[in-house]
Amino acid sequence: MGDTMTWAGLDVHARSTYAAVVDSRSGELSRVRFGGGAEAVVAWLAGLPAPVRAVYEAGPTGYGLARLAGERGIRVDVIAPGKTPRAAAERIKTDRRDAELLVRQLMAGALRPIHVPSPAMEAARDLVRAREDVRCDLSRARHRVSKLLLRHGHVYPKDRSTWTLQHRRWLAQRRFDEPNTELAYIDALAAVDGLTSRRDALAERLSQVASDAELWPTVARLRAFRGIDTLTALALACEVGDWYRFTRPDQLAAWVGLVPSLTQSGESHTSGGITKTGSRHARRLLVEAAWHYQRPPRIGATLRNRQQGQPDHVLAIAWRAQHRLHRVHQRLRERGKHSNLATAAAARELICFCWAAATAP
Description:
This protein is α/β, with parallel strands linked by helices. It has 3 domains: about 5-110, Nucleotidyltransferase, domain 5 (2-Layer Sandwich); about 120-210; about 215-360, no CATH class. It is built from 13 helices and 7 strands. It has helices at about 40-45, 65-70, 95-110, 120-150, 165-170, 180-210, 215-220, 230-240, 250-255, 280-290, 300-305, 310-335, 340-360, and strands at about 5-10, 15-25, 30-35, 50-55, 75-80, 260-265, 270-275. Strands 3-2-1-4-5 form a 5-stranded mixed beta sheet. The chain has a two-stranded antiparallel ribbon with strand order 6-7. A hairpin with a 2-residue loop joins strand 6 (about 260-265) and strand 7. The protein is globular.
């Protein structure tokens, strides 16, 4: 970075972009404002004295600016807004000030760029998140149906087997005296059926996406773990992206937000709940998978089929994970810890084992 001649900080929005640029030779700071779009910004960066290094914060405008600049041979990094250092007493925030803050921190080396996924990886991640959105919508729609029935005294006799084919036939037989309530019930039930069809269609498409040459090697290795099948493995692969950017597994666990929070001041040292930073989707999938490790280690027929064709050292990692995570569950429960806390601890170690398998030779 010592030979960099021009530094630029960009505050990017949908309809405008503010830029602050510093010439390291003269130390002169200048500002420019652009309209929407990335073409004018990249053309301006290309006209600056080379080499140029620019940065902007990740946001709803995506990675288009960074990718376009990369095609022109200009390095434009994307950083996480939550990792941008800001003064606690700062009470004035404008686009111009944000751009100047970015360029100064870039020159000071205080900014750390995030991973920019390839267009294909981002497209797969969009589809994965679309299915997750449908899953959440389906859960809410099912709650509306069940609560409407409960308000009118309809209770399914089999408590632990809801939303099966038998339960669906029972739902179709429910009737109400009031026509308006009947219509509301039919509408809510139709919403459930429509969302179920959408979820299944997206799942089928994602099964095909998982076989892509860029994704399948990692997906196949993650499927060797208990509790992780094709869709979960694909979602983790898309959310993490480049596994090699994490030099240690604990860095990935921190990125997913599964490490305990910490408050330390003087002699005071307090550990709290997990930080819950990073991808909420990946964190939920890991916690769900970690529940499977409450049972003693074993390899059933389904898991054995998923593990076929995988290297021996990857299978050894998955087998060690079963023993290790089962001991975590047992040890913490023997100490009187809540099952949710034990599962979060197991999920933290599970992502570390996943990192070992994904990055293994």
